[in-house]
């Protein structure tokens, strides 16, 4: 009788797979939330489109090809250059820092509709301060390895 109770109260941990417990739980929660969104938002929207009450927002609207393709090119270049620059300064986070500054500046300028002196100065300050602050907090305070 006692051995059955001790088996019930004992815990054995497989350390080879124990780190997968919480990501698995999060994946199932996210899948459930995705289904809730599909049922409550997407299905009624598609039914309204089928009845002709609404239209699909991406069909028939003009596309800003400059910003769309510019964003795609910048994102690909950002990740590629972060690795290249990061290999020049290994384990310092300078790849993230030195590539994020021009990336944020170019993205800001690309999406800026009116280029006033004040707006450009704010974009330049933001491009320097935001990645610098993120780099300082992550790389120096929390010692998280950045590319």
State the main characteristics.
mainly alpha; 2 domains; 5 helices; 147 residues
Give structural notes:
- By secondary structure, the protein is mainly alpha-helical.
- It has two domains: 21-61; 65-141, no CATH class.
- It is built from five helices and no strands.
- It has helices at residues 2-9, 21-51, 65-88, 94-111, 117-141.
- The longest helix is centred in the N-terminal third of the chain and has 31 residues, at 21-51.
- The model has no long low-confidence stretch (mean pLDDT 89).
Strand content: under 5%
For the terminal residues, how far apart are their CA atoms? Answer: 57 Å
Please indicate the count of domains: 2
Low-confidence runs: none
Which term fits the overall shape?
Answer: flat
Biggest sheet statistics: none
Gyration radius from CA atoms, angstroms: 25 Å
Q: Mean pLDDT, nearest integer?
A: 89
Secondary structure: helix percent? over 70%
* Structure class: mainly alpha
* Quaternary organization: single chain
Question: Which secondary structure elements does this structure contain, and how are they paired or packed?
Answer:
Elements: H1 2-9, H2 21-51, H3 65-88, H4 94-111, H5 117-141
Helix pairs in contact: 3-4, 4-5
Give a summary of the structure in a few sentences:
The protein is mainly alpha-helical.
């Amino acid at each position: 009788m006692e051995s059955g109770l001790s088996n019930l109260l004992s815990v054995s941990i497989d350390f080879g797979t124990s780190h997968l417990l919480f990501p698995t739980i999060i994946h199932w929660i996210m899948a459930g939330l995705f289904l809730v969104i599909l049922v409550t938002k997407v299905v009624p929207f598609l039914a309204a489109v089928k009845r002709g009450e609404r239209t699909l927002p991406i069909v028939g609207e003009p596309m800003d090809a400059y910003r769309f393709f510019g964003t795609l090119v910048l994102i690909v270049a950002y990740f590629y250059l972060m690795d290249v620059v990061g290999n020049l300064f290994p384990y310092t986070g300078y790849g993230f820092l030195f590539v994020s500054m021009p990336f944020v500046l170019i993205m800001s300028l690309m999406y800026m509709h009116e280029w006033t002196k004040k707006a450009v100065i704010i974009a330049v300050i933001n491009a320097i301060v935001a990645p610098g602050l993120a780099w300082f907090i992550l790389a120096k305070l929390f010692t998280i390895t950045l590319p």
